Amino acid sequence: MQTSTTPYIAGREIAETLGVVTGEAIIGANIFRDLLAGLTDIVGGRSRAYESAMRDAREIALKEMADEARRKGGDAVVGVDLDYETLGSGSMLMVSATGTAVRLR
Questions:
Q1: How far apart, in whole angstroms, are the C-alpha atoms of residue 15 and residue 4?
Q2: 1-16 burial code (b ≥16 CB/10 A, e <16)
Q3: Which of 31, 39, 54, 95 is the most buried (most CB within 10 A)?
Q4: CATH code at 29?
């Protein structure tokens, strides 16, 4: 499944627009990850634990979006947008992916 943040796929013509598709992933932060992030805040640097959680959530959201596009008969998703939000008291991370499913010629 090809995906693009642009409204087209380079070198391909869109034959049909199939509608908006989405995927969401909500990942909970655990106490170990929070502890490591707290230490990183004190000494500086990157929080690899949170980066990994965000990467995993993004991949899940994109996969769910692509799966929905396939179910609609699409072979690409254009105009992809990723949004990141915290939920609750900041202990949950939500990533949502939204785009337009299309059928290419």
A1: 16
A2: eebbeeeebeeeebee
A3: 95
A4: 3.30.110.70
Residue 71 is given by DSSP the state H
Range of the domain at 59: 2-104
pTM: 0.81
Indicate the residue type of 88.
Answer: G
Instruction: Find residue 85's DSSP bridge partners.
Output: 94
Three-state DSSP class for residue 51: helix
Structural domain total, the chain: 1
Residue 102, classed as helix, strand or coil, is strand
Q: Which structure tokens are listed for 104?
A: 């290419």
Residue-wise pLDDT for 43-57, tens only, equals 556 666 677 888 899
